[in-house]
Amino acid sequence: MTSSEGLNLLVSLLLPLSIGYALVVLLCRRLSIDLLPSLAISYGLGMGILSQWMLLLGMAQIPFNLMTIGIPLTLVAILFSSLALTKLKRNPLSADAKPSLWAADAGPSASLRQPYAIADLLMSAYILYNVIFVLWRSLNIPIESWDAVATTAFKAKVFFFDGSIHRLNLPHASYPLHIPFTEAWIAFNLGTWHEILVKIIFPIAFLSYGVLQYFYLKSLTNHRWALGGLCLLISSNFLVYHATIAYRDLTMMYYNCTTIILMLLWNRKKEDGLLILASLFAGFTTFVKLEGTGYLANYTLLLLFILWKEKTLRLGSKIEKFLKFALPSYGICLLYQGYKFSLNIAALHGRLKPVINPDQLLRVPVIFREFASNLFLSGNWSLIWFLLLISFVIHFSKTRHQYEIKLLSLALAIFFGVYLIIPIITSTLIDHPTLLSRVLLHFFPITTWLIVLLHYPKNTF
Amino acid sequence: MKKNYVFIPCFLIISVVSAIIFFITALTQNIPLKALLFRLATNSYQPNYNSFSNNNYFYISLIMLLSIIIVYTLKMSVWRRQQALDLPSLLSGVLIGTLLITMVLQTIGQTYYFTHEFQWIDGKKIADRYPGALKEIVDFAGFCKKKWPGKHSCQLITDLDMSRDPGMFFHRTLAYHLYPIDIRDIRRSPADCAIVFIAENPLSRVPKGYDVIGSWGKKNLLAIKGPPQP
Q1: Which residues in chain B have their CB less than 8 angstroms from residue A169's CB?
Q2: Interface ipTM
């Protein structure tokens, strides 16, 4: 990478990052937000806004180039930043006086006993090694994987060279366009199509997600347990590998899990800005992969459960909060679905056609066998699913964060339920070499949060 | 016994179970110990596979389950009165111990994979960083773009079965690397060139009215409509 490429790459990332950061500050103005986790959220937020803007340009048949994409976004960044600064000035609370977004609610975290400092060191070394591996591999191996050359990177190349979405006359026209748009944006900034540097978005999504998970778990446990959670996460060969290739699934995992983290944070902090952030992330999830549209229903179920269990709110407030989530997320989802509908393109690529046939029941043992061998014996997930299963058995009734664990278990059950039911009622492939692993990756991190929370001692003060 | 030391018996049990399974595997499958150790280390980083036929996770799971059974049996008999050795802590000890073994094995395998790729890349240009068959395609696409620069729409003539792999993947890879030369009819514009790709006797496959402007290997060529451009 030359210095000018490096600089252009930096600019291409800084613009969405600054939009995202200003929006986070704006929406969470009553909370003190740490820089690092906020940047981790800002990356996804900024990239999501960028891809929605590119979609609007494409729909209006305005040619893509650095000016048409970059100038309006720069104006948005300036506008959001000025609004954020104005709001901060008006807020009488100083940064120190505001409650921290990432502070634990249940009192001080457990003290870190010295004999285990070596464990911290080993865990940090393990994490660092994997980060180096991801950065090196993603920035040295060119785009060569199946889906990337067939669809995502191919579309990005079309957008870059033609400056148009060709009214979705594209392979797999129904597929959402977040990854192709962001790759094309990187290429516009570089001024050329670079087979390696356009992949920068994948290791950054990996790092952003890692930072976010660390702070989320730290807010519920302590530094050591949060580090342990990260080690569990990256012990998955599949996840680490996907951070180095140009598939959409790791980005999908980042958006999906960030949505859930933000929903849970909103539930703890009662700051509606977090719910709106969760809603935006939920909407952007629908624009990463088709599955995202289904996940939007999952988030809605989770939100309804939270609101149902919430005893302090009146019905009117509950409806208001529901709308704060539903309007942005469903709005983003409907924009692309509506555009596809106007072009007579199938919403779900002709997938998920129900098959009403008793023979479908014969698939049940096959489905369970595929799930079992994938989760427990595949080599993709280390021993994480085993650990989760046994952790549930031995620790479920003795945990500190009972409600959080219940919510996470519910979220996991919803995701599993969807993926167990779909192959039974449709003809979706179940024995595809990597399909099941890739959809499991979208919500795999929930298992690592659950393991940490289930094992975290109840009386560690 | 202090609660902190509950992991020691767990690690001992896991080590003994691992050693027994290791020797049984070597004996029953007639594999030399050194070769088995090498396979154990290098097979533990295999991302992107669903099957367990060629990795170590069956053995690791077996070690974990056997260790759990042993720990449970000991707790119910020998350690019944040892309050420090409570069952949840013992089971957590087994889980963490097995996970540590797994992570060490994975890291060794990952390092082996990492080193292998690192050495393979070793200062290569980007165009040379593709495995064999893909490199041929990338080179051919580069050749076509050099011979016929700019945006064009080409018809593709090939002997490949593009309805299944590897033909399907080769077609997608060629289309990707050729762009902005379009062979997937993205622009919906009439073809101004023809690409004969992996076809026997390629010269005989060139459509009428097209002139060959370059051949690449024995099975690939690029032809354009009308007389060749300077």
Answers
A1: 185-186, 188
A2: 0.90
